[in-house]
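Quick one before lunch.
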Amino acid sequence: MPQYDVIVVGVGGMGSAAVYQLARRGLRVLGLEQFDIPHDQGSSHGTNRIIRLAYWEHPSYVPLLRRAYELWREIEHVSAERLLFVTGSVDAGPKDSPTVLGSLRSCELHHLHHEILDAGALHERFPGYRLPPELVGVYQPDGGFVMSERAIVAYVNAAHEAGAEVRAREPVAAWEPDGGGVRVRTSRGAYTASKLVLTAGPWAAKLVPALARLAVPERQVLIWTRPRRPERFRLQTFPVFNMEGPAGRFYGFPEYGVPGFKFGKYHHRGETTDADRVDRGIYPEDEAVLREGIRLYFPDADGPTLALKTCLFMNSPDEHFILDVHPEFPQVSIAAGFSGHGFKFASVVGEIMAEFATEGRSRWDLELFRLARFAR
Ligand SMILES: Cc1cc2nc3c(=O)[nH]c(=O)nc-3n(C[C@H](O)[C@H](O)[C@H](O)COP(=O)(O)OP(=O)(O)OC[C@H]3O[C@@H](n4cnc5c(N)ncnc54)[C@H](O)[C@@H]3O)c2cc1C
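Model of the flavin-adenine dinucleotide complex:
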């Protein structure tokens, strides 16, 4: 039976970075992926993902983000491909909303350059933004986006160069502890390793049943529209945003990579699901939810539809990540529960998973992400 130092299950956003980080440390690494590399069935497809430093969700993410930026630049260098685009970011909402207060708190605690712009000032500076007067935005110049599918390709290519083996179309059916190591059974065979890294995205609970209520898949839908005023939605004129208003929480991107203004609503229509049975059809109700947000806040983008896609979130109860070693088997580590905001961290999560596998712990303060918090 082939023997590895580390097996990584799931070669998507987090897993591709983990395979690379492990291989570059000289370990014998096997990455196992159930679909293709890359593919459009999980959480990481749809061209790109927002990255932002002004982290309203919690200021503890900011040091990890700084490292994530460094590592995105590093993989860009290794792959000779531009993956991280800086456009600036806007976090908008009512003055006293969690988004605005949280974003300001992160900026102040971590000394991030930022400006508070009211709706009028935002429109003047970035004409595509037409927020109502009761909303304000925190503008932070380091925000932007990462090319998510290309990043997976870059990491897998770099992992190969560093000696890793990656096998696609090979779902893992089961794993079990084997002495101090693990044994993994797939559709094509069986492998053993000293360590196991589980980066299975929306499928996480199928491999770790204890995650059933802690990493719950949710169906999302994204739209790309042809703006009526395209010049207002270009890389140079339109910062990425994340905003909350009476109609919900929305996010969006300037036009890049594929045609159209990309726009989504967090927790779209609140449909929790099973990753193997998610409805990938697109319905008029899906588009209606997205059009409402575009018409309210970005009416100059309200042109013809260019694309609609489904995607999966994997939510934890408090919407913070799960980054930990397995509670029973220290040779197994888990990255899950990214709750719709994980991709920007994939570069640093890869490094953290490599630290877990090689040292049993990470140098980062990961208290916010421990599994044990749900038992308290
Ligand atoms: C619509 C949408 C918009 C988002 N926007 C943002 C954003 O702007 N910024 C941001 O930072 N984040 C965003 N996110 C969240 C981010 O994309 C996810 O947190 C991230 O992609 C999760 O990566 P992952 O590696 O956990 O999952 P995936 O990339 O899905 O990887 C998991 C992999 O494991 C494989 N796998 C699972 N089970 C098995 C098995 N048994 N055997 C073999 N392989 C297996 C899967 O096939 C998959 O390839 C968004 C998510 C969605 C859906």
